[in-house]
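tokens incoming
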């Protein structure tokens, strides 16, 4: 078993890869459908700032800050779900790819849509099938890529020598001269 920090790093990389796929599929949907970017992440950022008592500054800069914070919250969610998956995999040793992907999918859907529902910024009950497809496909892409990247990198890490995966490399083999001494 490798150290937790390395497994966590693998989870962060997997979450970043999944987030990239989520963004790409979302933007491709915008190109194909002609829809505008969602304003909901910015609304979550605005609501969160209000709840936390954070002043977003000059009123002229607030729309840009809301949009940026909304996007950053999305990246944070993607990284956090990837890290959470890694920590869960430290506990659940044997898990095939399909249930792993489904678990990541459910968690990322809850993590990304949950705050929007809690803050009353969206109501999926009124969504049409196109709205659901526009939300489900990028999140499913996230789940597949996050689970696959984690599993592949985790297997690579398992093959590394123990000294290469410990902090500080304390057990690194001693250097030898050309005679082997």
């Amino acid at each position: 078993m490798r150290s937790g920090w390395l497994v966590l790093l693998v989870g962060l990389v997997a979450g970043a890869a999944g987030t990239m796929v989520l963004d790409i599929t979302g933007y491709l949907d915008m190109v194909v459908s002609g829809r505008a970017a969602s304003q909901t992440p910015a609304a979550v950022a605005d609501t969160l700032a209000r709840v936390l008592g954070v002043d977003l500054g000059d009123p002229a800069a607030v729309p840009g800050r809301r949009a940026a914070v909304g996007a950053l919250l999305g990246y944070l969610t993607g990284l956090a779900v990837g890290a959470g998956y890694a920590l869960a995999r430290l506990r659940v040793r044997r898990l095939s790819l399909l249930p792993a992907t489904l678990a990541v999918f459910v968690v990322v859907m809850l993590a990304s849509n949950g705050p929007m529902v809690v803050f009353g910024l969206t109501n999926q009950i009124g969504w049409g099938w196109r709205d659901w497809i526009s939300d489900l496909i990028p999140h499913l892409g996230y789940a597949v890529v996050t689970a696959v990247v984690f599993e592949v990198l985790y297997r690579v890490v398992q093959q590394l020598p123990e000294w290469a995966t410990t902090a500080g490399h304390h057990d690194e083999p001693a250097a030898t001269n050309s005679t082997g001494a």
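note: The chain has a mean pLDDT of 89.
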